[in-house]
Design goal:
Length: 88
């Protein structure tokens, strides 16, 4: 089992090297066929961005609470309506 898995992995690596990483990849390939590491760096958030995110989170929380309270209210009305109907 381990030999077949290792064999498949080796075949995949060799196939990738022989066909190259040119047209199939979105990243530009270097002349040697070796793909360069992507340059990703994290940047610190500004105070305004943090405040906007907090505002967005608070707004979503408030809307969710409002929605849930409305659902509870409607379910209560529905329940009371049925109780009145069955009492008659």
């Amino acid at each position: 089992m381990k030999k077949t898995t290792l064999g498949l992995a080796a075949a995949a690596v060799l196939g990738c090297l022989t066909f190259g990483i040119g047209a199939a990849s979105a990243a530009p390939a270097s002349p040697a066929g070796i793909q360069a590491a992507p340059m990703v760096e994290t940047v610190q958030m500004t105070r305004g961005e943090r405040r906007m995110m907090r505002h967005h989170r608070m707004h979503r929380h408030m809307m969710h609470r409002r929605h849930m309270m409305h659902r509870r209210h409607m379910m209560h009305r529905h329940h009371m309506m049925h109780r009145r109907m069955h009492r008659m």
